[in-house]
Amino acid sequence: MITKGCRQLLKAACFVVSTMSVCMVIPAPAASDAAGAKTIFRKRCTACHTFGKGVKVGPDLKGVTERRTRDWLLHFIRSSSSTIQSGDPTATKLFREFKQERMPDWDDLAPEQIASILDYFAVNGPEQKEPDERHASTATADELRMGQDLFHGSARLTHGGRACEACHTITGHEHARYRSLGPDLSSAYLKYRDRALTDYLKQPCFLRDPEIATNHYLSPQESFALKAYMAQRAGLAIARVVPAVNKTAPSNGTK
Asked: What domains lie within the chain, and their CATH numbers?
């Protein structure tokens, strides 16, 4: 005979097991993601710090993982106030040097997230640019060829989206004389300039399949190639796109 107390105990055990199962089925997102560290750095650090460009409100963060231990940085980032109040000599010295400007306590960041930020600093991550952050004028002939092929559909986008030519035209191409659903992009680079066009290309023109289903659009390299191709068509001085050579077999009797 199962008593009332046993039934309650069994219910509690079942709840624990089911909760554990959910936790095992739905893993937590990886916190050591470099992209996540980059986002945190931009949103939380750059207002007061530089990386390799000298003192701002707070110290330059380049080389901080060599100047301080990881354990110290973890505690200071999560609670600079308690580290200073504890009398820590390094923390109190920094507090005096920087006009008693105390860094906010980022106690909402998990230790794993802080570890990913420190990893990002250790490899000089803030100084490394994504391919699409390069200026269009640095494009090679191969990158311009890639941009041309992607724009006109001669090459497929990594995530399967439609080519730009499905909705847009651009100066200097055989299809430019036809009307299009969207605006002509011949002067898009001049209108938005390099940085703004880079940001614009990070998202699709409008919600569409298949990108919207996977939350992916252009890869950074595809984005850069398209930006460079549009910049060249707008008149920016870049290396010329070399026309593709039709490598057909010679006919009989030719050498």
From this structure: 34-127 (1.10.760.10), 131-233 (1.10.760.10)
- Residue matched to tokens 């003192």: 55
Q: What is the pTM of this model?
A: 0.52
Burial class (CB in 10 A: 0-12, 13-18, 19+), 152: middle
Give pLDDT tens digits for 87-132: 999 999 999 999 999 999 999 999 999 999 999 999 999 988 788 8
Distances (CA, A) of 255 to 157, 247, 252: 39, 14, 8
Taking the mean position of all CA atoms in its chain, how far away is CA 108? Answer: 22
pLDDT in tens, 218-233: 888 999 999 999 999 9
Nearest to 225 by CA among 148, 129, 128: 148
